[in-house]
């Protein structure tokens, strides 16, 4: 199966039809089976600390969760319901004003029930991350009636 048409459709639906993604202005930089990259342009209302001009960590969290979920869907290559089970973030440095946030995410293990993802967020250079994360996403499974 050629994943390109699915990934193009996934990217278009993600950026245009997911309400909070559209409202935030998250942009798709790249998408394939191995990894995705998103970009969040800077906005003044992202500031959590206006004195020091630092972006609120919740903005970073939203970008990471969105990128990880999209990486799962890109890897599975078929639409299916997923849900974030666990999302651990290490904030390494504050995100500063006037620069966009970039997030790269990739799946490192896929099982029939769980998908494991890593991501990195940076501003000026990938080798200087703002935050790193690991996540686990639950895949939908068919419910089977059990008789005890």
Structure description:
By secondary structure, the chain is α+β, with helices and mostly antiparallel strands. Helix content is 27%, strand content 37%. It has a single domain, classed as Thiol Ester Dehydrase, Chain A (Roll). The strands form two sheets. A six-stranded antiparallel beta sheet has the order 1-2-6-7-8-5. A two-stranded antiparallel sheet has the order 3-4. The longest helix has 20 residues, at 57-76.
List the helices and strands and how they pair.
Blueprint: H1 4-17, H2 19-24, E1 27-31, E2 36-40, E3 47-49, E4 54-55, H3 57-76, E5 82-91, E6 101-110, E7 114-122, E8 129-139
Antiparallel strand pairs: 1-2, 2-6, 3-4, 5-8, 6-7, 7-8
Q: What characteristics describe this protein?
A:
single chain; 148 residues; alpha+beta; Thiol Ester Dehydrase, Chain A; 6-stranded antiparallel β-sheet; 3 helices; 27% helix
Nutshell version of this structure?
With 148 residues, the protein is an alpha+beta fold.
Distance between the termini: 40 Å
- Please, what is the CATH homologous superfamily? Hotdog Thioesterase
Q: What coarse outline follows from CA principal-axis ratios?
A: globular
Q: Give me the CATH architecture, please.
A: Roll
Rg, Å, rounded: 16 Å
Largest sheet geometry: 6 strands, antiparallel
**Given the structure, what is the number of helices?**
3
Helix/strand structural class: alpha+beta
Weakly predicted, low-confidence segments = none
Which H/E pattern describes the elements?
HHEEEEHEEEE
- CATH class, named Alpha Beta
Give the strand order, joined by hyphens, for the main sheet.
1-2-6-7-8-5
């Amino acid at each position: 199966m050629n994943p390109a048409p699915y990934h193009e459709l996934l990217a278009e639906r993600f950026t245009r039809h997911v309400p909070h993604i559209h409202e935030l202005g998250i942009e798709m930089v790249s998408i394939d089976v191995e990894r995705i990259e998103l970009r969040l342009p800077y906005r003044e209302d992202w500031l959590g600390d206006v004195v020091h001009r630092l972006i609120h960590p919740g903005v970073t969290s939203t970008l990471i969760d969105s990128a990880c979920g999209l990486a799962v869907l890109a890897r599975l290559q078929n639409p299916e319901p997923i849900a974030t089970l666990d999302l651990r973030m290490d904030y390494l440095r504050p995100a500063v004003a006037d620069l966009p946030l970039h997030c790269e995410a990739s799946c490192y293990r896929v099982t029939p029930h769980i998908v494991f993802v890593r991501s990195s967020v940076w501003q000026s250079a990938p080798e200087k991350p703002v935050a790193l994360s690991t996540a686990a996403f639950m895949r939908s499974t068919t419910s089977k009636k059990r008789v005890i």
